[in-house]
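Q: Sequence in, structure out?
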Amino acid sequence: QVQLVESGGGLVQAGGSLRLSCIASGLTFSNYGQGWFRQPPGKEREFVAAINRSGVNTWYADSVKGRFTISRDYAKNTLYLQMNSLKPEDTAVYYCAFTYSSCSNLGCYDDTHDYNYWGQGTQVTVSS
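A: Exactly. Output:
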């Protein structure tokens, strides 16, 4: 069966960096677009970043643009989220998600309902 396993979360001071990883198994990695979402304490899950199946297009939430980078390594079946210049408001549980969509516009990637598979989440805490 499909499994998505995130890692790389932790506690970091404001201004620091973390790289999240999401290892996928049970699916053909290159057949999917991918996204990262986060759920801050007491809030709903929100879009962070996405990359389409071809890798030509990437999208970011305005709140992370210029600080976060989504990327992937097909050989390792791994999706990444490099997070720099972290702020306390980035504190959340971060989730990776895969979608079978081949769409090439943000509207196909920025909602939780767009995705077929989800990881279990990894906690990121940024202290001030």
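Residues 52 and 128 are 34 Å apart (CA to CA).
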